[in-house]
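Supplementary material to the annual report.
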Amino acid sequence: MKDSDTLRGDRIPKRVITVLASTGMAIMLFILYFLLREGLPVLRHASLGELLLGSYWYPTYDPPEFGMFPLVVGSLAVTALASLLAVPVSLGLAAFISEVCPRSLREIFKPILEVLGFFPSVVLGFIGMVVIAPWLQERFSILTGLNLMNASILMGIMIVPVVASLAEDAMAAVPKDLRDAAYALGSTRWETISRVVIPSALPGILQACLLGVMRAVGETMVVLMASGGAALVPRSVLDPVRPLTSTIAAEMGETPVGSDHYFSLFFAGILLLVITLGINVAAMWVERRGMRWRG
Amino acid sequence: MKTTRRSNGSAHASQGAGTLPEVRAGRVVKDKLVTALLWCTMGGIVLLLGGILTFLSARGAGVLSWDFFLEPPREAMTQGGVYPAIVGTFQLILVSMAFAFPMGVATAVYLVEYARDDFFTRTVRLAIRSLAGVPSVVFGLFGLSFFAVFLGFGPCLLSAGLTLGCLALPIMVGAAESALRSVPQDYRDASYAMGATRWQTIYKVVLPAAFPSILTGGILSVGRVAGETAPIIFTGAAFYAPHVARSLFQEVMALPYHILVLATAGTNIEMTRPIQYGTVLVLLIIVLGTTLIGILWRARLRLKNVR
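Predicted assembly:
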């Protein structure tokens, strides 16, 4: 009698835990469902071609124009420039912490990097407004310092900790034997890093970069505060841009629920989700390939 | 493959015996240069972090006072303090963690203790990973359409808190999962050997053993949530609310949103600069303070485990 009681007592928690464990799944499905539900109605007003390739974003005009091309280009431009700035630095940091840094200092530098990763993006955006913008404005004598360059620098600072710590994990996971073999053949440390450690950590490093890029595409506050907010295709790095994320954040607040503008902002959300999920899937694919490659 | 090529290279170098020292010297110099460069990169990051912190402290410290902490904004937010925003931030943290902590721990318990390699488990894992990559502003859209509009909560503390909770869920799951995985299998085996059921083992042995690390993970997720702005802009953060929210269905002020409002939307952006610096500093103290406690505590736990 006692025995069956305990066993029944064991079955209920298992069910409860299993149900609770599906919360994440439910949230993900709800996100997809609600974005599609609120985003697709905009197609009644504008065709997919107009939305994606139209170059005029005038959602409040009469008649409104919902061309998201400049927004998409803005997102991609900031992401590309930020990655260009951040990836070399991140890989340098990863190589430093994993290969060069004395063990005692490692326990200090790793948390410092982590703290940088916890910096609220709104604070970095604020720094972009009060420090970088005036500096850029004076240095290049331009009208406003809030532009593609400014946002990319800040975005770079945001993704350096992400990329560096993941890449460091990948490099630290390279078996010590490989390094020992390289040193035994007379390689210097740099030769060991560049020709042994980095090649064999390549899947992990690639994954780190992809996740950094994913973070940059979805980052909102930095671009909202520092990118200038002009919905134009930038011609130079000193032009203001208006990425998808900051468009949503800036305009959703004053948009009536159920208007075409509201639907179009959800459509922008769908685009963002498609891009970030795509990068995420690519990162998972790289991870799986990497595992097979390593054996 | 690469190593083979490397060894060929060395073989060539040793064949030309006369040039060996110079070749070797060149490579050593290159190595030293790169090492110096890598040290400089790290130094640059440390300086950057130090510089940002010093700059913000220097500009913001003068504004901080008891009045700043304990008074609501006055005179169209050009004077007064940030009391409602501080309380609002803590309320948001509380609501989001009340959701994310139990759900995250339960998911992690499932993944570590119960999961078999079946379709359901793989889907749960995939969902958590995808969730971790969803942009914060998309969480905001979801919170607006689901919590505020569909469920009819309206923009309020509950909607914003739950939206933040959804964002914190994958972080929490990751933290709890690694905490549970670091509990030695021996503990479980010993418990089963004494006739305990699986749930008794989880509840009385595994969870207590993992709890300190889970809590550290929770603290670090609080650090993430406290500084988030995008998810709360249209789900419940108030432009201005003179009083602290007394129910879950009122809008709240929050420090990150307050910074955004003062720095971009105010009528007197230059005039409120000192208040902006002060608010930034308060937010940084809360976020980095929480994070630092989490990091230090985690380091202590690791030391204990090693011993």
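Residues 2-44 of chain A form one domain.
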